[in-house]
Amino acid sequence: MSYETIEVETHDRVGLIRLNRPQALNALNALLISEVDCALTGFEKDDGIGCVVVTGSEKAFAAGADIKEMKDKSFSEAFLGDFIGRWDTVARVRKPIVAAVAGFALGGGCELAMMCDFIIAADTAQFGQPEIKIGVIPGAGGTQRLTRAVGKAKAMDLVLTGRMMGAEEAERAGLVARVVPAADLVAEALKAGAAIAAMSLPAALMAKEAVNAAFETTLIEGVRYERRLFYSLFATEDQKEGMAAFVEKRKPAFRNR
Ligand code: CAA
Fold this sequence. Notes:
Layout: E1 6-11, E2 14-19, H1 30-45, E3 51-55, E4 60-62, H2 67-70, H3 75-81, H4 89-92, E5 97-101, E6 104-106, H5 108-115, E7 118-122, E8 126-128, H6 142-150, H7 152-161, E9 164-166, H8 167-173, E10 178-180, H9 185-197, H10 201-213, H11 219-232, H12 237-247
Parallel strand pairs: 2-3, 3-5, 4-6, 5-7, 6-8, 7-10
Antiparallel strand pairs: 1-2, 8-9
Bound molecules: acetoacetyl-coenzyme A.
Acetoacetyl-coenzyme A (CAA) binds at residues 24-25, 27, 63-68, 84, 104, 106-108, 111, 130-131, 134, 138-140, 142.
């Protein structure tokens, strides 16, 4: 499959999607979103893939939704066309997705990173929701996911002033899982991806589902849901293999069943 706005590679069991519209700082236009959708759907169906990494360039993960593409839309074109609705695939993918962010992750770029399961940031990363500066507000989950990640005070600060937040501040605030030197970003993200992809796939999918449930439900329901999933994993061969390997002091050989 050949793409115009992204590059797609596989590294053993890790799928890598590199956003590639350098002339527009990876601004997210309809073609790019549909290509990301297509690549993710392919990785989701591919038994040989256990984790996906999404990255951009050194200068920009993505500088937001494509302002030039959307600026002339009428209300009814925006509302009825629901062009942001097409981004939801990223949040619906069941396999783990790591965002590897260097440079600008602004507006829809920050929102795309937050749709992934966690963010590894280069020390050059700059996060922000600057939509207010162009007369709108975040439209791909920014007011919701950013608030859940960093709390109300910092989310309000970023969404209302449109200022950028560097990698260190983002890590302190809980938006970012770890910060690494820019030169090591993709290698570190692929390493994390490979570690995840080496786990039992059913366990990884359930772990992701259970953590995400924490944002959707009450504590008591979430704990109950987690326990159901935990017990259900005893029906897998991988649970038997994982625990036997521990007792026998060897590496487990998971078969994703
Ligand atoms: N959409 C379309 N084109 C964009 C873009 C965007 N979001 N961001 C950057 N570009 C383009 C610029 O227009 C420019 O193209 P030309 O050379 O053809 O003029 C090129 O990328 C390089 O950009 P700059 O010259 O501006 O680069 P810079 O280094 O001086 O500034 C920047 C970098 C601070 C990121 C600046 O480009 C910027 O502020 N970009 C817009 C950020 C933004 O407002 N994002 C939110 C978009 S709205 C949104 O995302 C809605 C949503 O929630 C879904």
